[in-house]
Recover the amino acids of this structure.
């Protein structure tokens, strides 16, 4: 009797083990996006009742629990030694501020809107690569960059109504600004990682980022802590754990398949965000948001694939940053 329930699971695992690496990578990517989307929905659910600092604290703390076995496999405490503490500090502070802005945007905006704005990070990264690192961008990526930012303008609609919303504290306007700020800062963090990655492994970079998140959010949380209900406490623990597991799956995906194959599946998060938003909060994306998101996604996919083929981006370390901040 006890063996019967295990048979389908064993059969599934055997079948999974026989799949080609690319197929396993795609499944890992789909699972990672699914978990990240569930995490974002949890953040929105909790955002109206708990301060962002408290949510970030639990996100970082329980993601760290998932990260510790990977650190042990990478060499334990010895793998955390670094000659670039200030580089880690700068990258981590930028990441924590980006996460704060991103979680705030999720709280203020419809989930699909917040997700669409998050996808502008590759556009900012390309622009900063030119301005900060002196990278050369040929006409194809320049066109993709211009097209991508036109999609941002369509989504945000920078008109008198937006200005009025900012002046009056409208949630849509303020949320959009936080979303764009989060993506821009995530791109800044990406640039920092490009510099750090020449000497630092991914686990070390993520460890110091999570540690900074725990410390900074913990200090801020101590002044505005709200005692969660048992159900909400479980959800806070779950979202951190889910985020950590999703990160592991994402790293696995990028290590086992070309980025050109994997990257497009990241954008299925828009489908999850739209679905969660509609089913839980009755949100329906504005046509302008949908159109702008499609343009941004198309540009982002092209830029990511193009940069990878040209050797500009390390896909494993790149995704580690963009999903953590």
């Amino acid at each position: 009797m006890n063996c019967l329930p295990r048979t389908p699971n064993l059969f599934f695992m055997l079948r999974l083990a026989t799949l080609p690496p690319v197929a396993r990578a795609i499944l890992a990517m789909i699972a990672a996006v699914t978990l990240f989307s569930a995490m974002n929905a949890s953040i929105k659910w909790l955002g109206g009742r708990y301060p962002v600092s408290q949510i970030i604290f639990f996100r970082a703390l329980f993601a760290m629990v998932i990260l510790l076995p990977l650190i042990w496999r990478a060499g334990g405490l010895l793998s955390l030694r670094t000659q670039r503490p200030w580089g880690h500090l700068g990258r981590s502070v930028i990441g924590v501020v980006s996460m704060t802005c991103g979680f705030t945007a999720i709280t203020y905006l419809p989930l699909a809107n917040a997700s669409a704005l998050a996808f502008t990070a590759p556009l900012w990264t390309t622009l900063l690569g030119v301005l900060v690192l002196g990278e050369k961008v040929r006409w194809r990526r320049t066109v993709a960059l211009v097209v991508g930012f036109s999609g941002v303008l369509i989504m945000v609609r920078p008109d008198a109504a937006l200005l009025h919303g900012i002046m009056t504290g409208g949630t849509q306007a303020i949320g959009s600004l936080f979303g764009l700020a989060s993506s821009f800062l995530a791109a800044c963090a990406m640039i920092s990682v490009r510099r750090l990655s020449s000497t630092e492994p991914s686990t070390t970079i993520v460890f110091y980022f999570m540690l900074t998140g725990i410390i900074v959010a913990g200090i801020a949380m101590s002044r505005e802590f709200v005692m969660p209900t048992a159900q909400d406490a479980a959800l806070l623990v779950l979202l951190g754990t889910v985020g950590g597991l999703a990160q592991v799956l994402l790293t696995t995906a990028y290590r086992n398949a070309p980025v050109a194959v994997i990257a497009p599946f990241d954008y299925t998060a828009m489908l999850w965000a739209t679905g969660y938003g509609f089913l839980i909060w009755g949100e329906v994306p504005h046509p302008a948001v949908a159109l702008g998101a499609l343009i941004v996604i198309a540009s982002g996919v092209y830029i990511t694939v193009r940069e990878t083929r040209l050797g500009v981006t390390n896909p494993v370390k790149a995704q580690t940053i963009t999903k953590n901040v």
